[in-house]
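Hi U.,

Before I forget, here's the chain from the pilot set. I'm dumping it here mostly so it's searchable later in email.
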Amino acid sequence: MEKRLNMEALQPTAYKAMLGLEGYLQTTALSKLHKNLIKTRASQINGCSHCLDMHTKESIKSGETLQRLFVLSAWRETDLFSPEEKIILALTEECTLIHQHGVSDSVYKKAVETFGETYVAHIIMAVVAINGWNRIAISTHMQPTAE
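Structure:
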């Protein structure tokens, strides 16, 4: 794959702004498990190899099981994810694929009933952040890091 620009080096102020959003997300009530599910699922949908590599590694270090990572793209067909996690994954998918039909009332209402508006706001901001990172990584051909 042809090497493309380095966004961090070329646009450091914009990159720092993205890192600022990540810093904000570290201050929220979002659990590490929930953040990693959001980051990994959105990166699967967007086909971002760089982010998938990074966030699956982070997930494993945080205690996520390989089995759940293996079946994450088929989360609806398994009981390996809790009802709360399934709501987060549904909201992640609808926000990531927002161009298809927006965020449905049913998913939004379930999320607010389960987590409250503040936690839902945190979820949405985490989805916004990873979708931004995915678009940067894909458009600039960022690659997974070799081990």
